[in-house]
Amino acid sequence: MVLRIVLGAVYTAMAVGQLASFGSMPGTLAEYGLVNGVAATALAVALIAGELVCGVWFLARPRSKALPPVWVFTAVSVVWSLLAVQAYARGLTVPNCGCFGIYLTQRLSWFVLVQDALTLFYAGLLLHGGRVTATPAEHGIAGRDNEQDEAHAIHDVR
Questions:
Q1: Which pLDDT belongs to residue 75?
Q2: Residue 23 DSSP label
Q3: What are the start-end ranges of the E strands in the chain?
Q4: Distance CA 103, CA 19 (A)
Q5: Distance from C-alpha of 44 to C-alpha of 18, rounded to nearest angstrom
Q6: CA-to-CA distance for 135 and 116, rounded, in angstroms?
Q7: What's the rounded Cα separation, in Å, for the pair 100 and 55?
Q8: Could you give the CA distance from residue 137 to residue 33 in angstroms, rounded to a whole number?
Q9: pTM of the model
Q10: Residue ranges of the alpha helices (H) in the chain?
Q11: Average pLDDT for residues 100-107, to the nearest whole number?
């Protein structure tokens, strides 16, 4: 629960910072050398929307074990990580990683890569925790217990 609150606060703050400086986000994303123009704008919209969805969900429902916001968090984390790793590997100079828009700027460095690796690690923890503790009802299977599941599985095999 604490991890969800912390990640919710960070991702919501990221989205707010990026929204407040939306005019510069396509240019910031273009610095990574993969997208520019309309594609950079679309990527900025997708990242901000994803950060808002998972950030607000984690803050509003920290005890929820629902997987959709975790998958959104994972997707956003993967995109930011891929942007950073490929730019760093290519030796590109990215003066502002863009994580918080034009606020709390930091240049792309090994430290940003460590932060990205941590978000991927947290995504893995959240995915694992969601799968381990999810009840059948949370997966859309209502009213069946383990014995019934086994009976249905045996019947389905026949």
A1: 98
A2: G
A3: none
A4: 11
A5: 8
A6: 30
A7: 13
A8: 44
A9: 0.80
A10: 2-20, 25-30, 37-60, 68-89, 110-133, 146-157
A11: 96
